[in-house]
From TrEMBL:
Annotated ranges, domain RsdA/BaiN/AoA(So)-like insert: 200-348
Protein name: NAD(P)/FAD-dependent oxidoreductase
SUPFAM superfamilies registered for this protein in UniProt: FAD/NAD(P)-binding domain, HI0933 insert domain-like
Listed cofactors: FAD
Lineage of source species: Bacteria, Pseudomonadati, Pseudomonadota, Alphaproteobacteria, Sphingomonadales
Pfam families linked: HI0933_like, HI0933_like_1st
Ranges in coiled-coil conformation: none
Keyword Flavoprotein: yes
Domain RsdA/BaiN/AoA(So)-like Rossmann fold-like intervals: 8-401
Keywords of this entry: FAD, Flavoprotein
NCBIfam families listed in its UniProt record: aminoacetone oxidase family FAD-binding enzyme
InterPro entries: BaiN-like, BaiN-like_dom_sf, FAD/NAD-bd_sf, RsdA/BaiN/AoA(So)-like_dom, RsdA/BaiN/AoA(So)_Rossmann
Length: 403
């Protein structure tokens, strides 16, 4: 018989959500055990934001939640986001003297290193002891059998057994398996009767095949564009890669894209391209389409697009109709990606544990008292730019206050 350790709360997963839940519960005087199969805490935090952790976005608020968090229930995230705001996390960061800056579009990054965020969260877990609680960690600990006896959850790990009235699933989604990411949360959710919204990779580069494959010649070229899918559009940088398209604008639109869908790229976001080409024809009739595009785009991109438009001669040689057609293409160049780079390169996972079965105030399963689901494991996925960490913090706090 394994030795049994009794806790108030067992948290599976020491990522952003699990750590935030642990420190919140610990500081409320709870005895908490965090179990993770990784060698240490916050592995994704450490590599996030190119090592500087884009730890929140000032716009990750209830006002924008419906638009900027994708979920089968677009209202679900509002309660937690409303109670633990970007400002709350900023105050915590400030209280540790961690310097940060806004890069763009409300995205806040550490000036120094993402490690400072992990150290801050671990120190806050330690601080529980001064407040009557305790947070213990078990790393290098694959989780074994989990059971519920009607009032208490039992978790096997490392040949030990831990028991607690509250069990928190914070094991994230399957994005970046080589970092230890797994679909464990979904299996466990199913075990306890929770529905799973089909997961798929998101914030992920898209791959090009067919005729679009020619664009791979542009590998390494980036440009500010508007990437569009249906009515959704993002104006940011796009990057051509040796397999397809990446860059923030494309990563954002990938969360809306489904196999077979078209993605439109506006290569001239500051121009109404048909009108602009016609006015260029009047102003510089001897210019070619390439030299015209050269004035507003990088040389390689201008050349590639001019080749594909195949308008021979100078602007004066083109009919207005032809130029308007070329302009329309430049305003919304249609790509039909043949796939994505998948979980290996996806920053997050869409879908996951359905919010239907969870309380939006506490993240507790409605039909399994004491079972909580937080962070990326849940069917709530934010835009690029700090939205996903804010969801991890906010959902972690919501559960941490209830366990
Ligand atoms: P997270 O995945 O962080 O943690 C889950 C934990 O559970 C891990 O520690 C894992 O080891 C553990 N685990 C998994 N399966 C287990 C099992 N079977 N047994 C035991 N333990 C298990 N977001 C953002 O807002 N700003 C940013 O700058 C970035 N940057 C970024 C870069 C890259 C490369 C990636 C991949 C992702 C980002 N993100 C991001 C997204 C962000 O990292 C993500 O949304 C959060 O880390 C999710 O936090 P969670 O705690 O829910 O899961």
């Amino acid at each position: 018989m394994a030795i049994s350790n009794n806790y108030d709360v067992i948290i599976l997963g020491a990522g952003g959500a699990g750590l935030m839940c642990a420190l919140t519960a610990g500081q409320r005087g709870r005895r908490v055990l965090v179990i993770d199969h990784a060698t240490g805490p916050g592995k994704k935090i450490l590599i996030s934001g190119g090592g500087r952790c884009n730890f929140t976005n000032v716009n990750a608020t209830t006002v924008h939640a419906q638009e900027r968090y994708l979920s089968a229930n677009s209202h679900f995230s509002k309660s937690a986001l409303g109670r633990y705001t970007p400002q709350d996390f900023i105050e915590l960061v400030r209280s540790y003297g961690i310097a940060f800056h806004e890069k763009t579009l409300g995205q806040l990054f550490c000036d120094g290193s993402a490690r400072q965020i992990v150290e801050m969260l671990m120190e806050e877990c330690d601080r529980s002891q001064t407040l009557g609680g305790r947070v213990d960690f078990a790393f290098n600990s694959p989780v074994g059998e989990i059971s519920h006896d009607g009032s208490v959850y039992h978790v096997m790990y490392n040949g030990l057994r831990a028991s607690a009235a509250s069990l928190v699933i914070a094991t994230g989604g399957p994005s970046i398996p080589k970092m230890g990411a797994t679909a464990f949360a979904y299996d466990l959710g199913r075990q306890f009767g929770l529905k799973i919204i089909e997961p798929r990779p998101a914030l992920v580069p898209l791959t090009l095949g067919g005729d679009d494959v020619l664009f791979r010649e542009l590998s390494g070229v980036s440009a500010e564009v508007v990437a569009q899918h249906g009515k959704t559009a993002f104006r940011e940088a796009a990057l051509f890669t040796h397999r397809g398209l990446s860059g923030p604008a494309v990563l954002q639109i990938s969360s809306y894209w489904r196999p077979g869908d078209r993605v439109g790229i506006d290569f001239l976001p500051d121009h109404d391209a048909p009108a602009w080409l016609l006015s260029e024809k009047r102003a510089r009739p001897k210019a070619t389409i390439k030299s015209t595009l050269d004035r507003v785009l990088s040389a390689r991109l201008a050349e590639a697009l001019a080749d594909k438009l195949a308008l021979h001669g100078n602007l004066a040689d083109q009919s207005d109709v032809k130029l308007a057609e070329a302009g329309a293409l430049l305003d919304c160049w249609p790509f039909v990606p043949n796939g994505s780079e998948g979980y290996a390169k996806a920053e997050v996972t869409l879908g996951g544990i359905s919010t239907d079965g969870l309380s939006q105030q506490t993240m507790e399963a409605k039909k399994m008292p004491g079972l909580f689901c937080i962070g990326e494991a849940v069917d709530v996925t934010g835009w690029l730019g700090g939205y996903n960490f804010q969801w991890a913090w906010a959902s972690g706090v919501a559960a941490g206050e209830a366990v």
